[in-house]
């Protein structure tokens, strides 16, 4: 029979059992990887340089892992509970005094998303006591639970269930307990309990605790007198251990990392996260390096009204390792450290103060302790402090900044002569005033004091007022621009003793002859182009093809700049975008002369949805006057004047071959030297739904001639092979150029329902890693090659990985997730 019960009485059994739920998905004490319960995830688009991490994939968990009474058709709307009626069905109902209801025989109670089933249920309508016996089962939108016996009181919010099995539905998490006790609405204690995110009944890992308390208010679970087991093997005994119940930050251990490096020996890292307050936290990371000692890495983060930042200190006392042969530092027996301070503070209005202080005990620190398994090498530590602001005056926009930059050499193969000039201080002021919808006036101004021991020092002002116009429609454009550039120097006393490469005794015979040299010149350019399009059909598909011819004229008169110092200028790498640049030099110390016309053309193929399937560009600069402004080369000479009629031809093509393959190529050929200056080809494709393969060839005259193959190959839905190989050909005319295998990475990854294993080996050339050959005498056999092995285990649902392997794979394998 079926009977409706009063809505204000939810038959406390259903209410209480809803509160004795198991833990939600464990979160992280730091950055948290998103979860994917159904295995769905967005593949990284082909050609992307950075890809988001793969979410935890639980699709490999057994689809029938839910407790056997799960009903997928039950409502998922928990918000309707307060207004919904409770429907009760049972074979027999006995309530002689209308106070105690005795229900027997396949009892089932449904309300909104809740369902309670049992063989027998007794409920006292006056005291709100309840007692459910025999095959007790409970389901709502978030969880399942079964028990042999449940009893308690609805009004007080307490209850006890025996022989409990539970499983979460909105997140992973399941286990068993001898008894579950509801302490109040938000706190539950499990006695002799287990917890895991693996399949029900197939736990590859689990916690077994004498007691586990779930705090739903703070999202924390606490296990006492517990063991962490892998399979049936107890791995750790934990007298007290806390773990997250959701994605909120919490105090606890992050994943440990075990590895080996040729410079520091075996390393064991066990980071511990401290959730000190909602607006600040800390991480303590003690590390043991068997060849050097014990290091403590501490990080503190804060977020205050108007200010935020981090403090990070790494300290290792009394390094007992050996000296690094062929490097510029002597470190054995010394204290090693690095500290980083970053802060952003709001001052007033749009003005902010930012600082980033990064210093180390020696320039071998990253060579010995850096994350040699991932991330790019760090050559220089930069420290900066700046006050910056921006705003609007009428219709004009402005921005300004005042600060200073200092540097520390972190390249163990170079001396401090390789460092840039310190900028102490610098100031920038820029503004842009749109006079009307086609004309604007602006100005870029920079003031810098350059400092570098052993080199000429001084101050520089660089002023660049300009007037620019923009005419055109969707089918054409003309953009003329006129600029005046004025650069002035005030060199320090003793400037006559210096040349471009430091003191005159170091080889350069031409000293600086003016203490206040300057340069003043106009720069005029006109950029113009047309855009044609038509509809075409290729291989049975419809496309829109564009044809975009472009002409760019640049005029800048010659100014003799051989008496100007080189504080921050360098010749930029020539590429397609240099065809439309006003200067081939970075920095303000050199401004090229020009009387040039660039001709270029681009064509594109767009599909019906507007996605670019093909882009091809070709162009060249035609020079009407010689290129007279050059950078110094060697130790005593300046590059000669180049009287070329044209630049190198530049071509580049990007092709989306289909949904699974993409190719791109660039090529530069000089008609003056009849040499290939640059060539690049890159091919990327997908293998299955979870694999990627890359092939790349890169050549730049005098710098590199390298092949790279990388990929992720899925052997099955659980196993993936990971690899990357970079091989260099010897460069013609370059002595001691790197050749052979520069870097090789090989690894394997196993992914299951609740565990991910990663094993990666990296073999690399130190000099290739740092990009240069040693500049100091080598008195012994230099260790030119190093090998790093790292093993990592990720227990899904217990927090985020500490990320020692992924940075390397992201760097070396384009498209890795």
Characterization of the model:
With 817 residues, this protein is an all-beta fold. Among the domains are: 2-48 and 58-247, Lipopolysaccharide (LPS) transport protein A like domain (lipopolysaccharide transport protein A fold, Sandwich), CATH 2.60.450; 466-656, no CATH class. 3% of the residues lie in helices and 55% in strands. The chain is built from 4 helices and 51 strands. The strands form 6 sheets. The chain has a 26-stranded antiparallel beta barrel. Strands 1, 4, 5, 6, 7, 8, 9, 10, 11, 12, 13, 14 and 15 form a 13-stranded antiparallel sheet that branches. 29% of the residues are buried. Residues 1-41 and 768-783 have low confidence and may be disordered.
Question: Which structural category fits the helices and strands?
Answer: mainly beta
Main sheet record: 26 strands, antiparallel, barrel
- In the CATH scheme, the class of the domain at 2-48 and 58-247 would be Mainly Beta
Which architecture name of the domain at 2-48 and 58-247 does CATH use? Sandwich
What is the radius of gyration? Answer: 34 Å
Mean pLDDT: 82
Helix content: under 10%
Strand content: over 45%
State the distance separating the first and last CA atoms: 56 Å
CATH superfamily of the domain at 2-48 and 58-247: Lipopolysaccharide (LPS) transport protein A like domain
The CATH topology of the domain at 2-48 and 58-247 comes to lipopolysaccharide transport protein A fold
Q: Could you say which overall geometry the principal axes of the C-alpha atoms support?
A: elongated
Number of strands: 51
Secondary structure tally, helices? 4
Low-confidence stretches are: 1-41, 768-783
